Amino acid sequence: MNIPKTIGLPRMRNEAGEKRVFLPEFVQFIASLGVNVFIEEGYGSRSGYSFEDYKLATPLIHLASKEKAYQQDVVLILRSPKPDEFKLMRPGGILFSMLHFPTRPLRIKRLLEAKILGISMDSITNDVNIRLMENMKSVAWNGLEAGFNVLEKRWPGLVKPDKKPIQALILGTGMVGKYAIDAATKLGNIERNNDHIEAGGPGAIAFSVGRNLSSNPTTMESLFQEADILVDATQRRDASQPVVPNEWIAWLPEHAVVVDLAVDPYTLSVDPPVVRGVEGIPQGNLDQYIFPADDPNWDKTVPPSVNSKNRRTAVTCYSWPGVHPEACMLHYAHQLEPFVEVLFEKGYDGLSLDGEYFERALYRATLKCYLDEQKSVV
Amino acid sequence: MTEQITIGLARMHYEFGERRDFLPNFVAMLGKLDAKVMLEYGYGSGMRYTEEDYLNHDQKITFVSHEEVFKQDYVLVLRCPSENDLRLLKPGACIISMMHYATRPNRVALLRSLEVESISLDSIKDDVGRRLVENLRSVAWNGLEVGFSVLLRTYPSPGVESPNRDPIQVTVMGVGAVGMHAVQAASHYGDMSLWNTLAKRGVPGNQVTALEYDLTCNKAVMKDILTRSDILVDATQRPDASQAVIPNDWIAWMPEHAVLVDLSVDPYDCSVDNREVKGIEGIPQGNLDQYVFAPDDPAFELIPDCVSTVNRRYSVSCYSWPGIHPKEYMDLYGKQIGPLVRTILRKGTPANINAKGKFFERALSRAMLSNYEAT
């Protein structure tokens, strides 16, 4: 059994607004397991952390080049590295990241070609198939917070001219949808909601609609006409069809805000093509996630063949948890700790479904487990 | 503690309909941890398990009297035992159960006076405060499943299962942990198989309106919503339980066929110092023996006089919603409690559970009576 002894933490090279890094306390925790930690130069600098903040006189924590960080026994990075960065890893290295096996066949191919042992954070599940590494609450709350921020600029204190409660229409009743309802009824922000209650504000009502209603144009038209906020929290069975065709956007009041929590991309090059749940809205990221209807960047991510004629202000972000990076990484660190412990105790090959709670959960996230399951499905 | 750790699993002697006990595979897991496992006579019989069913999983299990169960090093029982039963515990023993420290000061005082340790299942939390032993999903889904089963009978022509009806209107009050599940359950009739069947037949779905507690006091908004609600769900966690969220007068606004679903299970108490009223005023408190109440059910007459019951609709209420599907419930709890009990038994005595230890040790430590300080 190969037990890993070192770990590399490379930087994420995504948009400039991506500031998430594992926090010094978590890195200290990893070192406390007797593991040598190699941190890429500049790690955490966008969030104001220096190497000294990480090292704190711990001899097991080292500063490293990007290449050296990728050459360790385990590479830990939240968002998957880019394809050319896979080549920096050594065969047999363990990549622990959000790898999204079910929707990334090309990534799996690259992992196998490079002989990298993948463990996907998004696939860590317990015995009843609940994800143990997730931040869906932040997806919903951060998205709704941004949506209500837009409305608050129009209506200070979130009081509409008619003094009626703000109406949020939420499509999708899965985990993100559930959190979205919670967030919508609290104006996307607990402190704002407390102030609103104290000031005697009218509050907000959330209307929740599942897929058995969202396909009914008659019902949807009446709901859209009353909606101040439209939230897409759907998980579509058929990603080639939008839940909200662009024509429906015209039913929304001019002031309405579309909040995109589903973050599906436009991928028209595959067959069948993948389109966004709300047809015609742009795809945001941490650099820009608010798009007024006349935003010049609107068309940059919307392919010309997609109907985007009807527009309302859209808030959309590929990674909503990243809007509040420290809170996000603190959350992930709490979730990751027991899995890091197991990984450095058992190694990749030592993980088994016969092990204890966290070992079983981590095993389910390995690429070998995923591939075995795929074989059994076939 | 004795050399080989002993653990007793007691039955829950409450209402007749209480059928829950830990399943044979869970009990067998305890035996594999080198603990001597003792089950109360009749354990599992509410779910039609026999002694043989347990012994087939682990032949070392023994069946003993109720009193004998309470004399073991550890006693595991889901719902907290009565005061008399707690007095059977020996000093230094540890009871593992839903203790609800914060709302049961007398229980806390009693256990301390008995020099007994306890681990409260409802207080076992991870590092970010999430409960590790909970079944709030079943509270919502089971309650809504029963609510819709009643609506199937009360809903006027053309009926719930007709493709020609309007969307069913469900109003959920409270969007906390239970309320969030309730919204999801309400969208699916509380029953995925029914949802699949009706969706395939093109029957319109359900529209769910979710309200936070602060909006429910807006009479004009509530009148508008209640007038068109087919199902009203109380999933609130009220800061002031002396005031109803829905005063009985408001029930008159609702359609005659409407169903009231009580997920909050607050009791009634008319005493001056400690007045408590259910979130929806005037509906009966159900339990596992009876959880569906027609408007003319005699149970309405048993509601204390300080509570108005003038306006009535079909009501569904149960003190323990998860208990209506006991096997599924205990299977889930077994999975949640398994790694925790494993950690407890490996540690030998509760005193060895380290507040700075590994994940489950930290979680258990937060639930120990010896670490509990009333706020």
Supply Rg of chain B: 22 Å
Fraction of helical residues of chain A? 25-40%
Shape summary of chain A: globular
Question: Low-confidence parts of chain A, pLDDT < 50 over ≥5 residues?
Answer: none
User: Can you say what the CATH homologous superfamily of the largest domain in chain A is?
Assistant: NAD(P)-binding Rossmann-like Domain
How many strands of chain B? 12
Number of domains of chain B: 2
The CATH topology of the largest domain in chain A corresponds to Rossmann fold
In percent terms, what proportion of residues of chain B is strand? 5-15%
Alpha carbon gyration radius of chain A: 22 Å
- Please tell me the overall pLDDT of chain B: 93
Q: Tell me the number of structural domains of chain A.
A: 2
Helix fraction of chain B? 25-40%
Classified by CATH, the class of the largest domain in chain B is Alpha Beta
Determine the oligomeric state from the structure.
Answer: heterodimer
Write down the overall mean pLDDT of chain A: 93
Walk me through the structure:
The complex is a heterodimer of chains A (378) and B (375). Chain A has 378 residues and is α/β, with parallel strands linked by helices. Chain A folds into two domains: 170 residues, Rossmann fold, CATH 3.40.50.720; 181 residues, NAD(P)-binding Rossmann-like Domain (Rossmann fold, 3-Layer(aba) Sandwich). Chain A is built from 14 helices and twelve strands. In chain A, the strands form two sheets. A six-stranded parallel β-sheet of chain A has the order 3-2-1-4-5-6, sandwiched between helices. The longest helix of chain A has 22 residues. The two termini of chain A are 30 Å apart. The mean pLDDT of chain A is 93. Chain B contains twelve helices and twelve strands. In chain B, strands 3-2-1-4-5-6 form a six-stranded parallel β-sheet. A six-stranded mixed β-sheet of chain B has the order 8-7-9-10-12-11, covered by helices on one side. The model of chain B has no long low-confidence stretch (mean pLDDT 93). Chains A and B meet through helix 7, strand 8, helix 9 and helix 12 of A and helix 7, helix 8, strand 8 and helix 11 of B. Strand 8 of chain A pairs antiparallel with strand 8 of chain B.
